[in-house]
Amino acid sequence: MVDFRIRDLTADDPAAVAQAAAILQDAFRKHWPEAWPTPQEATQAVIEMLAPDRIARVAVTQFGEVVGFIGGIPEYDGNVWELHPLAVRPDLQGRGIGRALVADFEGLVADRGGLTIVLGSDDEDGMTSLAGADLYDGLWDRIKTIRNIKGHPFGFYLRLGYVITGVVPDANGRGKPDILMGKRVG
């Protein structure tokens, strides 16, 4: 277990913003390298999450080092919040940081009157049984029998109580779906 606390990420802490951007790039590099291909693009994505109507939180060690980042965007007049993004430093994944960030985020959303959290989790490199399939043929049967072949993040979210609410077939190219998930929090 890593000793950390969760706090707001703010624009007046450029070192933490830079660390969150680096984590965003590192965490997604293996399975979604085109997400934030440059440090500038990753930094811009983090800065966008600092808007007053959004949520931006970081997990920070006792030494002030950022080890995880989560963001949220209000939708549907604040009834629904999109969890985007969630990133944990790759060498520290599996140690409870992501789980704690999500739990913290859920509490903040509920405190703001949110009822539901939604997220999308792309499958661009064959990590689930939905990849490479024609999802327009028997979509709901395929969702019911989805298999996690290579440790896709949807398994993490299932363990946290999220459910698959749908799929966007071919969202990232033919046979590369986006798995939509949600959870009631309010």
Largest sheet: 7 strands, mixed
Strand proportion, as a percent range, falls in: 25-35%
H/I helix tally: 5
Class by SSE composition? alpha+beta
Compressed to H and E, one letter per element, the order equals: EHHEEEHEHHEE
Indicate the mean pLDDT: 96
Helix content class: 25-40%
Unreliable spans: none
Shape verdict? globular
Find the count of extended strands (DSSP E, 2+ residues). Answer: 7
Distance from N terminus to C terminus (CA atoms, Å) equals: 29 Å
| Main β-sheet, spatial strand arrangement | 1-2-3-4-5-7-6
**Cα-atom Rg, whole angstroms?**
16 Å
Short description:
With 186 residues, the protein is of the alpha+beta class. 28% of the residues lie in helices and 27% in strands.
Give descriptors for this structure.
28% helix, 27% strand, alpha+beta, 186 residues
Topology, element by element:
Elements: E1 4-8, H1 14-29, H2 39-48, E2 55-61, E3 66-75, E4 80-88, H3 97-111, E5 116-122, H4 139-144, H5 154-159, E6 163-168, E7 178-184
Parallel strand pairs: 4-5
Antiparallel strand pairs: 1-2, 2-3, 3-4, 5-7, 6-7
